[in-house]
Specification:
With 382 residues, the chain is α/β, with parallel strands linked by helices. It has helices spanning 20-35, 77-102, 148-166, 176-181, 222-235, 250-258, 275-280, 296-303, 316-320, 335-347, 349-362, 368-381, and strands at residues 7-11, 39-44, 61-64, 106-109, 126-130, 170-173, 188-190, 209-213, 240-244, 266-269, 284-287, 308-311, 327-330. The strands form 2 sheets. Strands 3-2-1-4-5-6-7 form a 7-stranded parallel β-sheet, sandwiched between helices. The chain has a 6-stranded parallel β-sheet with strand order 10-9-8-11-12-13, with helices on both faces. Helix 5 packs across helix 10 (335-347).
Length: 382
């Protein structure tokens, strides 16, 4: 097969974290370089002194501009504004210089700080935006502390963002629901995330273990999960729950104590470099997220033969799971229903096996070969 050898640049903040965006970008970059022969460069702004968490092909080039936007995390508001403007100016100058040196065919922004100026850089490349979160949560302004000024700011910010997105040659989102949300745009296309691995073995469905995977943060709803587990541990005392993820576990470890959860049967672990084996050692997966851009951990669990009990949150789970065919969708935020459906599958081996078999088959549509072909077609059309 004769494949056009495109030169592609990706712009993203960092690759030292064990996050879903980092995993997906690494996977696609490796595949495009190794299988399509594309010339791939990834331009970073953070983590110059930190190793990459996921392995990159030696055919993929990484450029770290070392801007250090992470410095803003610990600044007062006024200082943050001053430093941000200074760093943003530096980022625009260095990225412009880099792109004009590389002269890529296509520049892909993961829609962070460069979206403010990427389409104004005249390097000759087509500009593509890649969005890994749904519109409502792209900038998650805290509604509980909302006021008139914040509401005005939020609306102005979104209006400015939409004007930037209109100038892209293509905006790629992960689900059909995400596409529907961008009503002002006519340059939106749906390409889901690919599976990050093809398991060599699958769950035997004999281990009494539930697994949840994802960063320890408000978005992932581990507070909901632990509340549900209080009910589960009383009804199904022979099952255990394990959670794997990056981030600060302190608040959730305190919840274990406050909720009187048996710490021998509920373990909160950090990140792991071999998540596949942890899925295989489990018989059920759970997703308690408040919202999901896609749900990479859901398709990973399904590929390993695990049915997933998930909140029907915006918008990822519903695009992946067919309710009662290859997993279970429950009302978003309904802790009792989450617990009840976990208990139901723990007690019904036949039902769990039925969902497992369908999950393995249905998730094949996310194989990297199929997703990569969708990107290849998009690049050719551009």
């Amino acid at each position: 097969m004769n494949t056009q050898k495109y030169k592609i640049v990706y712009c993203t903040p960092a690759l030292y974290m064990a996050g879903g965006v980092e995993r997906v970008l690494t996977l696609k970059a490796n595949y495009f370089a190794d299988h399509f022969g594309y010339d791939i460069t990834i331009i970073l702004t953070e983590g110059n002194d930190k190793p990459l968490f996921y392995s990159l092909s030696d055919k993929v080039r990484v450029v770290n501009l070392n801007i250090g936007f992470e410095e803003l995390w610990n600044c007062s508001f006024l200082k943050k504004v001053f430093i941000y403007l200074k760093k943003q100016h530096k980022y625009k100058r260095l990225l412009t210089k880099e792109l004009k040196s590389i002269r890529p065919d296509i520049t892909v922004s993961l829609l962070r700080r460069e979206i403010n100026f990427i389409t104004a850089i005249n390097d000759g490349s087509k500009k593509v935006g890649e969005l890994h979160i749904n519109r409502a949560n792209y900038r998650n302004f805290d509604k509980s502390h909302s006021n008139f000024v914040k509401d005005i700011f939020s609306k102005l910010w979104m209006r400015n963002l939409v004007s930037k997105l209109k100038r892209l040659d293509q905006l790629v989102v992960l689900t059909d629901k995400d596409k529907e949300a961008w009503v002002e745009l006519n340059n939106v296309q749906v390409i889901p995330n690919p599976l990050s691995f093809k398991p060599s073995v699958i769950s035997s469905q004999t281990e009494n273990r539930v697994i949840a995977v994802g960063r320890y943060c408000h978005e992932k709803g581990y507070d909901y999960l632990l509340q549900a587990w209080v009910k589960v541990q009383h009804v199904s005392p022979d099952w255990q729950l394990v959670v794997f993820g990056d981030g600060d576990r302190v608040v959730y470890e305190q919840m274990l104590i406050d909720l009187n959860i048996d710490c021998n049967r509920c373990r909160l672990y950090g990140r792991t470099s071999d998540i596949q084996s942890e899925y295989v050692k489990s018989s059920l997966a759970v997703c308690s997220s408040r919202f999901e851009g896609f749900g990479l951990s859901i398709i990973e669990a399904m590929a390993c033969g695990l049915p997933v009990v998930s909140f029907d949150c915006p918008w990822g789970p519903r695009s992946i799971i067919t309710d009662n065919e290859d997993g279970i969708l429950v009302e978003n935020g309904n802790v009792d229903l989450l617990a009840d459906n976990m208990i139901m599958l723990m007690q019904d081996n036949d039902k769990r096996k039925h969902l497992s078999d369908h999950a393995i088959n249905n998730v094949r549509r996310y194989d990297i070969e199929q997703i990569a072909q969708k990107w290849k077609t998009l690049f050719e059309e551009l």
